[in-house]
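Possible regression after last week's pipeline update?

I re-ran a chain I had predicted before the update to compare outputs. Posting the input and the new output here so someone can diff against the archived version. Not blocking, just want to make sure nothing changed silently.
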Amino acid sequence: MSYDTVMEKVKVLPEPCLEAASNYLDYLLYQYGLSKMNSLTESEEVFNAKMQKGYDDAMQGRVKTIDQAFSDIKKRFA
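New output (post-update):
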C-alpha cells in the first residue's frame, strides 16, 4: 500500500475520527520503534558469553591500556 492510498483514506475520514486515526498512527510508530529496539538487544546467553570472554581475556593478560584503546578507536573512526 502506498502513502498516497493512505492519505486519500485519511482525507475522507469524518473529522471526529481524526483523533482516533492519529492515536492509532502514534501506536503503530511506537510499536515499530519497539521492534527496532528489540533487534538491538541480545539474549542473556549471548550477553553472558561476551562477559565471560572479556573476563577470560583480562585474566589471560589480553588487555590494553585505556590510552591504547582510545587510540585504536580514534584510528578506526577517524
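Follow-up from reviewer: compared with the archived run. The mean pLDDT is 91. Marking as no regression found.
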